[in-house]
Predict the structure.
Amino acid sequence: MLSVNTNTGAMMALQYLNQTQAQLAQTQSAINTGLKVATAKDDGAIYAIAQNMRGDVAGYASVTDSINRGMSAVDVAMSAGQSISDLLIEMKQKALAASDTSLDTASRQAMNQDFTALRDQITTIVKNAVFNGFNLVDGSTTKISALASADGARHITVSAQNLSLSGTIVTIKSTGTISTAAKASTMVATVQASLTNVNSALAKLSSGSKKFSIQLTFAQKLSDTLTAGIGNLVDANMAQESAQLTALQTKQQLGVQALSIANQSPQVILSLFK
């Protein structure tokens, strides 16, 4: 039926052209952003899943930072422990030499001065073994914890090791000397016991550092896996989008031509009245 009031062909052509325009806009958005699901409007379900996964990735970034801080604090403590172990070896040597009863007074006094300097150096090392406010070797804290999960529910804990003088690990008194052969002889056993204890404490700190390292590697791998999963859900296939763009642009041009032809249909009615 020919009508000047209703052009069914033009309405159909316009509907298809609008659909093509919408698809073209979506494809252009995918090309511009690199995402096939850039907003909730594109696909609400996929967008929600991706956002939840992005939250987990952000959480693991915080976990990584927390573990790195914990590892650094433990590494500082281990460096202090190694330095103290080296000092104890020197102190044992001094004490053993000073235990010789045939040593003259001047030599013994010089050795004692060296010994006390080494002894006091332990205190200096212990006080300076601080990272991010944590000192794991001065007795100010019993442990350090780091995040182990993106929800903050799980933690990794490493016990502190008090390496201060007059403690349970370094049993040398803060006033200990080797000023006499008897004191030096007793000090040899004390230093040896302290050395054994410090090396045991270092082993414990090393185990704690390894726990942090293992969890850090896992957190990084899990974050990478989640990131790849997000990409699988929302990233656009650029080769496919390029082909789709070409097809839709062609379809758009044909739609415009079809609409133009449909709009000319009412003019046919004029020929009926000539």
About this structure: Helices lie at 8-33, 44-98, 105-128, 181-234, 238-264, 268-271. The first helix runs from residue 8 to 33. The chain has a mean pLDDT of 90. The CA atoms of residues 162 and 213 lie 23 Å apart.
